[in-house]
């Protein structure tokens, strides 16, 4: 595993962190394709940039360097426990579209398939995430107290664009999932894009030199 990288700057004293699965280039290609298909349906979307596409396992928020090191140790303990329980690298299949409502705007995301041939990989993900969260809590780090709902954020701050024929974002995304072949009842599991998981990464959310938002990998633990 790679150890955390600590640049000698004042900014490194406290950083906004999360643990995530990073994605390969072909998966990013597919997610960008879906973003492009959805764009005419969305009003005022803030699309997730290609480099920032990821799947969050646990959000940690602002942490000190000591807490950052604690998080890395917890990641190491979780992957070791996962391996001890028979876990190894696995694959996840991209699923249908969904959203989280934020006041009058929505966060649009792509979920994961959990049935058929995708069931085993999804089960491995849930086991790994539970082990990770438990180890983080044991180190004294606070995590979000909400059920884990795996997803990849595609856009934020969205509203349904005029002329779509749908009043709610939920209805729009349900229809588009079916039309795009993403809904579970439409596409065969074997034909759905999938990606491999062979490690977990500690990520830093920041604005380098005051520029665009970037998610930088600080450390990684292999499965």
From TrEMBL:
Catalysed transformations (reactions): a 3'-end 2',3'-cyclophospho-ribonucleotide-RNA + H2O = a 3'-end 2'-phospho-ribonucleotide-RNA + H(+)
Keywords recorded for this protein, A-Z: Hydrolase, Ligase
EC code: 3.1.4.58
Family: Belongs to the 2H phosphoesterase superfamily. ThpR family.
Presence of the UniProt keyword DNA-binding in the record: no
GO molecular function, one term: ligase activity
Motif residue range(s): HXTX 1: 54-57
HAMAP family from the UniProt entry: RNA_CPDase (MF_01940)
Ranges in a coiled coil: none
Top-level EC class: hydrolase
Active site, per annotation: 54 (proton donor), 151 (proton acceptor)
Stored PANTHER family: RNA 2',3'-CYCLIC PHOSPHODIESTERASE
Gene3D superfamilies referenced in this protein's UniProt entry, alphabetically: Cyclic phosphodiesterase (3.90.1140.10)
UniProt function note: Hydrolyzes RNA 2',3'-cyclic phosphodiester to an RNA 2'-phosphomonoester.
Lineage of the species this protein comes from: Bacteria, Bacillati, Actinomycetota, Coriobacteriia, Coriobacteriales
Protein name in the entry: RNA 2',3'-cyclic phosphodiesterase
Pfam families xrefs: 2_5_RNA_ligase2
Position of sequence motif HXTX 2: 151-154
NCBIfam families xrefs: 2_5_ligase
Keyword 4Fe-4S on entry: no
């Amino acid at each position: 595993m790679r150890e955390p990288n600590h640049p000698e700057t004042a900014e490194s004293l406290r950083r906004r962190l999360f643990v995530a699965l990073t994605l390969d280039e072909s998966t990013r290609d597919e997610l960008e394709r879906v973003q492009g298909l959805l764009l005419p349906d969305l009003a005022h979307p803030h699309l997730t940039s290609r480099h920032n596409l990821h799947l969050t396992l646990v959000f940690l928020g602002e942490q000190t360097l000591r807490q950052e090191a604690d998080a890395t140790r917890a990641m190491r303990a979780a992957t070791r426990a996962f391996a001890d329980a028979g876990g190894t690298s696995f694959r996840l299949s991209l699923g249908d579209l969904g959203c989280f409502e934020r006041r009058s705007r929505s966060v649009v995301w792509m979920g994961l398939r959990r049935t058929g041939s995708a069931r085993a990989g999804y089960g491995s993900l849930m086991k790994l995430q539970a082990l990770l969260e438990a180890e983080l809590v044991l180190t004294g780090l606070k995590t979000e107290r909400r059920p884990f709902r795996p997803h990849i954020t595609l856009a934020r701050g969205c509203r349904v664009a005029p002329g779509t024929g749908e009043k709610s974002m939920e209805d729009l995304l349900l229809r588009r999932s079916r039309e795009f072949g993403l809904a579970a009842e439409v596409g065969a599991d074997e034909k759905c894009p999938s990606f491999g998981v062979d490690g977990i990464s500690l990520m830093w959310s920041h604005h380098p030199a005051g520029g665009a938002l970037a998610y930088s990998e600080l450390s990684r633990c292999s499965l």
